Inverse folding.
């Protein structure tokens, strides 16, 4: 049987997965306070290339 993590037991993995399910499936920000959401980039902001892992 494949486990999701080597750091937690199967029960903890299932609990963590259940806690994140709404955040991952939701089609909206997960913050309760709107002011905590990050600001979208402005039109005159320079383009930033995506992070590339090596």
């Amino acid at each position: 049987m494949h486990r999701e993590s080597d750091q937690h037991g199967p029960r903890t993995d299932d609990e963590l997965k259940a806690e994140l399910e709404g955040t991952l499936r939701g089609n909206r920000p997960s913050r309760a306070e709107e002011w905590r959401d990050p600001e979208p980039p402005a039109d005159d902001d320079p383009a930033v290339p995506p992070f590339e892992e090596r």
